[in-house]
Amino acid sequence: MRLSLLRPVIDRPGPWATVYADIQHGTEDVEREQELLAGATTAQLFALGADEATCGAIHEALVAPRRGEPGVHAGRVLFAADGVIVLDTPLPGPPAHPFAAWGPVPRVTPLLAAVGDDPVCVVVRLDRAGADLSVLGERATGDDRSERHVRTPAQGTVEQSAAEIADAVREAFESCGAEAVVLIGEAHERHLVHEKLPEPLRAVTYESEHGARAPGAERDLVERDIAQVRAVQERDHERVVTDLFRAGEGAGGTVARRAASGIPALVEAAREHRIDTLLVAAHGTDAARQVWVGPGVDQLALRGTELVELGEDHPACARADDALVRSVAASGAEIVVVHDPEQAPDGGLGAILRGTEEAPRE
Question: Which residues lie closer than 8 Å to 354 by C-beta, 6 or more apart?
Fold first, then answer.
């Protein structure tokens, strides 16, 4: 999950204004439409209790000119606190339900559901002179994102060249924690490199029949192939995580219980930093349940009196999904949005736990 998106808003205390907006580009009355949207949104936020400075920042951001294809609707999410736009990011498309919210924690769960996972993928563009390697994905940062060029010696054999490229691909795959490889280029070069890869790596290596190293070569078809590979990896990862959750949920007796569900258990596990992976379904009954939070990411409880006893004088109500996401993201745990309702935890929220807990003997 693209938790890097949340870093600007996780540790910063609220209250927060959150806006999921449907922006239409390139119409004749685009400026007037933006002004109407900004006015209606800030009026709603002000009615919910937002301060004037934060409402003003949201208004200014929504009326700012935006480039886009004429007549195309696009989604946009804004998070603001204390008169500052902390995060302003596009969505892959218009939000299913545009809304504005004001509360103690940002409404981040719809953003995670919209952008999905971000599997790390090594993309290899081949030709007879060598290969260009690049890494796509959330964990691909710094040097990983820059392209690496592998030049094969002119005097070397085709087999040697393929072996050298395959070794570079293996090294890149292992160093960045990738989940898939896509080979792009002529069929002969693709097949040779594929055959030289170690067996475990061949199992997650895909070949695109389009494109080459030349700039713009069948760019749209190549991008489609890469997107399809990453979508497969995302679905596979979701299935693995839900299977692990079900297995942990069923553990009992002398076997360590490794899963939690239900708001009381999840709140306790989050507060104690025992969540390894949080599972969130888009439409779960537990997601909108109210819990109590303070400004700190670990300050969450079932009742406000619990936080008062712990020294928080002004606890506030928040949605369970957003409060848990905030706490879990701050602890470095993983978050997986489960799209298949049949695989989702009961109530829509669940967790795979860290470590082990000895279940009581019967």
Answer: 273, 274, 275, 276, 333
One-letter identity of residue 244: L
3-state secondary structure of 131: strand
> Under DSSP, is residue 318 helix (H, G, I), strand (E, B) or coil?
strand
Mind listing the pLDDT tens digit for each residue in 311-348?
A: 888 899 999 999 999 999 998 899 999 988 888 998 99
- Rounded Cα distance, 225 and 121, in Å: 12
pLDDT above 60 (res 214): no
Contact 329, 9 (CB under 8 A): no
Length of the chain: 362
Report how far residue 129's alpha carbon sits from residue 152's, in angstroms, rounded to the nearest whole number.
Answer: 6
Strand 349-353: give its sheet, edge to edge: 259-261, 349-353, 275-281, 334-338
Read off the pLDDT of residues 274-287 as tens digits, 9 standing for 90 and up.
999 999 997 788 99
Residue keyed to tokens 């299913």: 96
Query: Which DSSP string do the residues of 211-234 spell out, in sequence order?
Result: --SSTTTTHHHHHHHHHHHHHHHH
Q: 């609707």: which residue's tokens?
A: 73
> Per-residue pLDDT for 144 more than 50?
no
The widest CA-to-CA distance across the chain, in whole angstroms, is 76
Going by C-beta distance under 8 Å and a sequence separation of 6 or more, which residues neighbour residue 183? Answer: 124, 126, 190, 193, 194, 205, 206, 207, 208
- For CA atoms 221, 143, 330, 295, the dihedral sign is negative
Q: At residue 278, what is the residue type? A: L
According to DSSP, residue 15 is labeled -
Phi/psi of residue 150, nearest 5 degrees: -115, 110
- Report pLDDT for 195: 94
Give tens-digit pLDDT for 32-91.
888 999 999 999 999 999 999 999 999 999 988 766 555 566 899 999 999 999 999 998
Q: How is residue 42 written in tokens?
A: 């800030």
**Cβ(282)–Cβ(337) below 8 Å:** yes
CA angle 132, 133, 139 (to 5 degrees): 155
Is the peptide bond between 70 and the residue preceding it cis, with omega within 30 degrees of 0? no
